[in-house]
Design goal:
Blueprint (H helix, E strand, L loop, with lengths): L10 H10 L10 E6 L2 E6 L2 E2 L1 H7 L10 E7 L4 E5 H17 L7 E5 L4 H12 L3 E4 L6 H11 L3 E5 L1 E4 L2 E4 H9 L7 E5 L13 E3 H5 L11 E2 L3 E7 L7 E6 H16 L6 E4 L6 H13 L3 E6 L9 H9 L3 E4 L1 H10 L2 H4 L8 E4 L6 H11 L10 E3 L15 H4 L17 E4 L11 E6 L9 E2 L3 H9 L6 E9 L5 E6 L4 E3 L2 E3 L1 H9 L4 E11 L3 E10 L7 H15 L5 E6 L13 H8 L14 H9 L6
Parallel strand pairs: 4-17, 6-7, 6-8, 7-14, 8-11, 11-12, 16-17, 16-18, 18-19, 19-20, 29-30
Antiparallel strand pairs: 1-2, 3-13, 4-5, 9-10, 14-15, 15-23, 21-22, 22-24, 24-25, 26-27, 28-29
Helix pairs in contact: 2-4, 2-9, 3-4, 5-6, 8-9, 16-17
Bound molecules: 5'-O-[(S)-ethoxy(hydroxy)phosphoryl]adenosine.
Length: 625
């Protein structure tokens, strides 16, 4: 990566400096970028507050009474919060947190459904200069416990339950299970969202309304240094426990503000709907921080795309006149299966930008999205913006610049890196590959949205992102750059699995499988699925003397669901005598994946014992070629 040679900012730093100047800083920075590879500090010396940048800047002007959040549930009930309503709520939560002793640098965990209070809780934590750690509300008790412990949170904000497909998803109950053995958590704040009955632990749990009862309506925003952490969000890699990705305040805010403008051309007049949950990075960057900084109206829908009917989403677009719609290919594939008639009955003419994220948007789905949802309108009036990025990158990295440059999009390609971003495709030696050849996607210069570390593990940060290619950020994705410089994302080069665009690591699944005492060893494989992107196939080795049965299979799968959450879709479970391993004992998951997908097995020379494969094929005839 380039190192600035002198104190005069080079062009990409100039670009980011100009972007940062659009944000409300309390104190200007003295240095745009301090790059000590692999650590970057952006806007050094500058002071800012995320909640101030999202709310305070709007509430004295014309946006004061404009809807900031419009929430709707599956039964059609809606709530509107203006910028000034949201501001008041955030201030009260912040003050109540302060009264509980929360201060700058403390970590507050949030385990909440997609309700306005969840957004307000994030902003309230940020207002104090504390660090939020949102945990996806679909996670089970073990996944939740691991994440809470990793960040050593002592205060958690949750809700009685979430709503999905007409049912209550008991969040407080899951949290109680996660905290059974935990003594660090001192306070649990519970929003009564659905009325679902919960048990309250004396001295620890407090209802949200009581929590706010004594709170002041104003809590001064804490000016934090640009590099101060804004949040921790766990994500999965190839190995080990989930990583707590840390994003800092000034660079991150600048980045998400700038990229949402560049890619989607957002304005304060947009009704913007990002269908992601706040538990994932998309929900942080492009459901909360960026659209609120831009003063847009943000749509929150608590529910599923197909309940009470298959047209729930299209009804929302029509009813609330959504102008920007940002979703994942997995949802589009489900809708494609249903046909177009139901969709055509809805007036979707308010839409002006269609976004996509999370998985490759292949040309057929792209074409369907443009024709059926975009109404086949002028591609410059309702363009499809497929955004490639990651939890680690904080915001969009590669996406078409249709709105700015009238880029003619190639369906299936994410096109070119956004301004200020230098991406490339390299071989395993880190050398640029020929146009059209598959290689590893790397980023060659730091950018303001770049993660600043892994919570509590700097060595892992260096090892994970900076050890494979000298001086380049390793995205762990494979891609192709064609002769026109357009990027085509092929998928992960590691063992990360994407189910319905939710990112999950094999290690976490395997740990959950092993917690079923009958299992001695296991391997989780992500296999291609035409609707969900990927699903999971499990291989298990049972303890001596235990035989597999349908009920044991069910128990193992149930164990994973309870531990990690029901969004983990397991489509098959194979019981084998041994797993294929390298001589150093690493499970060769790629060989198992190739077996299941009936693909060539590739290089088997590293296998400790080649007979393993024959044994598995002999046991399961479907794997035989
Ligand atoms: C994949 C989600 C193809 C990719 C924002 C990446 C994509 C991983 C796209 C990050 C896209 C994301 N086309 N693949 N437009 N966007 N990915 O951290 O493999 O949940 O590495 O962040 O999703 O997933 P994460």
């Amino acid at each position: 990566m380039d190192t600035p040679e002198n104190s005069t900012p080079c062009s990409y730093e100039n670009f980011w400096q100009n972007e940062a100047e659009k944000l409300p800083w309390f104190k200007p920075w003295h240095t745009v970028l301090d790059w000590q590879p692999p650590h970057a500090r952006w806007f050094v010396g500058g002071e800012i507050n995320a909640s101030y940048a999202c709310l305070d800047i709007h509430i004295h002007g014309e946006l004061k009474d404009k809807t900031a959040l419009v929430w709707c549930d599956e039964t059609g009930v809606e709530r509107h919060l203006t910028y000034s309503d949201l501001y008041k709520l955030v201030n009260r939560i912040a003050d109540a947190l302060k009264q509980k002793g929360v201060k700058k640098g403390d970590v507050v965990a949030i385990f909440m459904p997609l309700i306005p209070e969840a957004v307000a809780a994030m902003l309230a934590v940020a207002r104090l200069g504390a660090i939020h750690c949102v945990i996806f509300s679909g996670f089970g008790a073990d996944a939740l416990r691991d994440r809470i412990r990793d960040v050593k949170a002592t205060l958690i904000i949750t809700a009685d339950a979430g709503r999905r497909r007409g049912k209550c998803i008991p969040l407080k109950e899951t949290l109680d299970r996660a905290l059974e053995l935990d003594s660090m958590v001192k306070t649990v704040v519970v929003v009564k969202s659905t009325g679902y009955a919960v048990s309250m632990h004396e001295g620890r749990d407090i209802y949200f309304d009581d929590f706010l009862a004594q709170a002041s309506s104003y809590c001064a925003p804490e000016a934090v240094e640009s590099h101060h952490p804004l949040f921790i969000l766990h994500t999965s890699g190839s190995t080990g426990a989930p990583k707590g990705v840390v994003h800092a305040t000034g660079g991150y805010l600048t980045y998400v503000y700038s990229t949402l403008k560049e890619a989607f051309g957002i304005t304060k007049d947009d009704v913007y709907w990002c269908t992601a949950d706040i538990g994932w990075i998309t929900g942080h960057s492009y459901l909360v921080y960026a659209p609120l900084m831009h003063g847009a109206t943000v749509m929150l829908y608590e529910g599923s795309h197909d309940y009470p009917t298959d047209v729930a989403w299209w009804q929302i677009i029509e009813r609330f006149k959504v102008t920007i719609f940002y979703t994942a290919p997995t949802a589009l594939r489900l809708f494609m299966k249903q046909g177009v008639d139901d969709i055509a009955r809805h007036n979707l003419s308010s839409l002006r930008v269609l976004g996509s994220v999370g998985e490759p948007l292949n040309p057929q789905v792209w074409e369907w999205y443009a024709r059926v949802v975009g109404g086949g309108r002028d591609p410059l009036r309702c363009p499809i913006i497929d955004t490639w990025w990651q939890t680690e990158t904080g915001g969009f990295m590669i996406a078409p610049k249709v709105l700015r440059d009238h880029d003619a999009v190639k369906p299936g390609s994410v096109m070119h890196p956004l301004s200020g971003i230098e991406a490339d495709i390299v071989s395993s030696d880190g050398l640029p590959v020929e146009p059209g050849s598959k290689g590893f996607l790397v980023i060659k210069k730091p950018w303001p949205g770049m993660l600043v570390g892994i919570w509590g593990d700097n060595e892992r940060y260096k090892r994970t992102y900076w050890s494979r290619f000298t001086g380049m950020f390793d995205t762990s994705d494979c891609a192709i750059k064609d002769r026109d410089g357009c990027f085509w994302i092929l998928g992960r080069s590691d063992e990360v699995i994407k189910i319905s665009a939710h990112r999950i690591g094999t290690a976490e699944i395997e740990t959950a499988v092993l917690s079923q005492g009958a299992v001695a060893e296991s391997a989780a494989i992500g296999v291609d699925d035409s609707l969900r992107g990927q699903t999971i196939v499990l291989f298990v080795v049972l303890r001596a003397g235990i035989a597999i049965s349908d009920s044991l299979k069910k128990e193992i799968i149930e164990r994973v669901h309870k531990s990690l959450g029901r969004f983990i879709v397991i489509t098959d479970l194979f019981c084998v005598d041994r797993l294929p391993k390298t001589r150093s004992g690493k499970i060769l998951r790629r060989v198992l994946r190739a077996l299941v997908q009936r693909e060539p097995l590739g290089d088997l020379t590293t296998l400790e014992d080649g007979a393993v494969i024959e044994d598995i094929c002999a046991q399961y005839k479907q794997f035989e070629k």
